[in-house]
Amino acid sequence: MSPAAVLAAVGAALPPHTVSNDDLAARMDTSDEWIRSRTGITSRHVAGIDQSTADLAVQAAAQALNGSYSPGVDALVVATTTPDRCCPATAPTVAARLGLTGVPAHDVAAGCTGFLYALATAAGLIAAGTAETVLVIGADRLASLPRPDDRTTVPLFGDGAGAVLLRRGDADEAGALAPIVLGSDGTCADLIAAACPGTLHMGGADVFRHAVERMSTASRRAATAAGWDLAAVDRLVPHQANSRITSFVARRLGVPDARRLSNVAHVGNTGGASIPLLLTQAHADGRLQSGHRTLLTAFGAGLPWGAVALTWPDLTHPTEGAGHDR
Ligand code: COA
After folding, report:
1. 185 and 133 in contact (C-beta within 8 Å)?
2. pTM of this structure
């Protein structure tokens, strides 16, 4: 049996500057009431021009490594839609700044589903024997993508980063990723798109429908792949596109709303950072606890989607096999 990828640590970073709905209403034709009722978002963190995607990624990764008992990192994957430069990729720079020069490091581009694609990549590196520990980072500066006066997109997005450390382990231990479900539909690539370089355009209503449908279907398949009944899911961790989308997904899956984790009110849609950022916050404030059957799902520009199940591990104590000799 090939080794499993096991979650061993989490970390996150948010730029300090926040922009409220009222701040937006002061500079464009919108209102707090409109944004909150359509999206559940009240404010978002926005990076200054001096804070790059790599800066956010390094900060989130450093926090994950601080809380980890693993002696090293063998590989690094960054999921981002907003790399600091078109070329080269962000990951080698992030690795070097973390003191990991020499490890394999590359970016994954899969929109807001990027983190789940990066998890799959990392799990593959572990299964292939290329790495025993992989740092997976989702980092995005989506707030800078829309045209600054576009009221249909500006309110939705924020900046941030989240990171998890995966280590080689066994499929039956807490934290092991069940088979990861992924998919994409490039025939709808124009529904959320930004030219290179250029500003973001989005067909909001169509995106909404696809997001609900794809995340629900992927979640069902991921639960089945894990051998779970959906009624057994303790925590649903959907990509934080907006709260109407995620509550529709929960309803479709029959997951009670109290089990649907959310932080969108204060961070907006942070793209690849969305899920690991939420995992880190929910772990820190106790919404996610050891033993919780946790289902992650995402959807994004492209249109890619994905889902994966894991039982939340005890991240407060070193686990057997958490370390390894390099
Ligand atoms: N403030 C005030 N009015 C706004 C507005 C804003 N920020 N943005 C749009 N409007 C207006 C529209 O211009 C439209 O006016 P009109 O009827 O006079 O033409 C009206 O509000 C309704 O627009 P509509 O786009 O139909 O609203 P909606 O109920 O579909 O909500 C979204 C818009 C974007 C919130 C919704 O479509 C959505 O959540 N889509 C998914 C977006 C997403 O999550 N993308 C990322 C996926 S990873």
Report:
1. no
2. 0.95
239 in active site? yes
Report which of 52, 90, 67, 84 is spatially closest to residue 12, judged by C-alpha positions. Answer: 67
pLDDT at 321 over 50: no
For ligand 1, the distance from its centroid to the CA atom of residue 204, given in whole angstroms, is 6
Quick check: is 263 catalytic? no
Domains of the chain: 4-169 (3.40.47.10), 181-311 (3.40.47.10)
- Give me the long-range contacts of 283-286 (CB less than 8 A, separation at least 24): 283/10, 283/312, 283/315
State which of 28, 38, 214 you would mutate to test the pocket of ligand 1, scoring each by most atoms of that ligand within 8 A of its C-beta. Answer: 38
Q: For atom 29 of ligand 1, which residue has the closest CA?
A: 38
| 288-307 residue pLDDT tens | 999 999 999 999 999 999 99
